[in-house]
Write a structure and sequence with these properties.
The protein is an alpha/beta fold and 506 residues long. The chain folds into 3 domains: 4-143, Cobalamin-binding domain (Rossmann fold, 3-Layer(aba) Sandwich), CATH 3.40.50.280; 164-356, tm_1862 like domain (pyruvate-formate lyase- activating enzyme); 407-506. It has 18 helices and 16 strands. The chain has helices spanning 18-25, 45-53, 69-82, 103-107, 119-128, 157-162, 193-205, 222-238, 257-263, 282-287, 294-307, 325-337, 383-399, 408-412, 417-432, 440-453, 459-471, 490-496, and strands spanning 4-10, 34-40, 59-63, 87-91, 110-112, 137-138, 165-167, 170-172, 188-190, 210-213, 245-250, 271-278, 311-318, 342-347, 366-367, 375-377. The strands form 4 sheets. It has a 6-stranded parallel β-sheet with strand order 2-1-3-4-5-6, with helices on both faces. A 6-stranded parallel β-sheet has the order 7-10-11-12-13-14. Strand 3 (59-63), helix 3 and strand 4 form a beta-alpha-beta unit. The longest helix is centred in the middle third of the chain and has 17 residues, at 222-238. It starts with a strand and ends in a 10-residue tail after the last helix. Residues 485-506 have low confidence and may be disordered.
Amino acid sequence: MSKIILSTLNARYIHASMGLRYLYANMGQLQNDTLLLEFNINARIMDIAEALLKNKPEIIGIGVYIWNTAEALQLIKLIKTISPDTIIILGGPEVSYEYEQQELVSCADYVITGQADLAFKELCHELLNNNKPVNKIIQPLPVELSKIQLPYAYYNDEDVANRIIYVEASRGCPFKCEFCLSALDKTVYPFDLDIFLNEMNKLYQRGVRHFKFVDRTFNLKADTSIRIMNFFLDKLDASTNQNLFLHFELIPDHLPEKLKSIIAQFPEGSLQFEIGIQSLNPEIQSIISRKQNTQKVAQNLSWIRNHSNAHIHADLIIGLPGETIDSFATGLNQLYMMNPHEIQIGILKRLKGTPIIRHTEKYDMRYNPLPPFNIVSNNLINFMDMQRLNRFTRYWDLIINSGRFKNSKQILLTDNPFYNFLNLSDWIFKTTQQTHKISLERLYSLLYNGMIDALDLDKQTVADVLLKDFEVSGIKGRAKFLDNENSTDNKTRKTLSDQRQMRHIN
């Protein structure tokens, strides 16, 4: 039995919580009395409660994030019903701000806001010694990173074999982008690089080959970035097993020549850069306090694409204050011309504590009151159009970002990528009334009919490119989307063929 349990609900099994492992690493003398148990949001809440309570813990610490808020509330209510004397301590970004209004905070015994690496142990020590704090909300002072024990030894063998291993060489961000919690940071705080690289070496020796860096600004200090990348290059040079994969978040307009020379040395399939563009509109960038040189962004993306083997994952956000549909369309089309491998399009979410709230009244920003707290309308995009854009992002992932339609997207996104795809998105939804549970075989049929009906593309040209994609799709048998008699969407297609979707939103 364990006196203390550290737990959270991850979005998927493949994710391993680095935050929990930080807490566990810093439990000191209480570590032997502490158990780390992770679950995912798809598990039954009753089963999670059973797994936690069978250990008869005195204290349960739960990490709360935007993706598990609703499930965490259900879990806490259930635990308090079954075992009201069990002390619940909450932590994580979702309860660190605006906690006064949150039901799950009211259901818990204590909440640690902000940096809990050492504060959780200290609170547990007080509670186990019957020295209960007067205040429910614990607000620890910032801690020097040199005083924090690193978590990497507590990724177990199952994590190493099956899960993403998250690491960080620094914390914080110097930028003030108002949609991001990192806007609240004052600067970047690096971990001791020698100690960090020694931990990375231990992980590598244990068999870790997929390292996901969560640093917000990995390339802020080029010399540090170069040391880290050289460390992994040495591993590649010395290894016959070339399956190393590194994920970094890059500042898009900061890529000095000495860093380029290191990037260029990595082989194909070993490097991925997540590049947060968010908006290419200078006016929007100014509104949200984002500093970004669009010309340098274009130059750097072009260099990465043409002179390295790195995979580029670029992000854009729909719904920022001041952004119209047309201006977003311009930005997406502009970014598409820069030719990143993948463009991730997200809907703005109002994370608790972020400065974006200051624009609520002026731009009539209205957010979903339930997780994930996504924007549902503003003064420039009404609810119905925001729904269309939500569907746009879903279909974009299914079709463009899936990698299954590399040939088809070349003609689908010609000339005006945003409005071409919006027309197709509208057509697919009107045809299916679905954004999920669309089989791959049916998706081929929808694309075939939609590209012809909604976009007026030549039937033979569509057939040719889709067949090229179909041949490598893994679907057995013939391409049924060419067989009108067996097309699952043929009847709807006949009705819609005379009702072509508008090229632009009214």
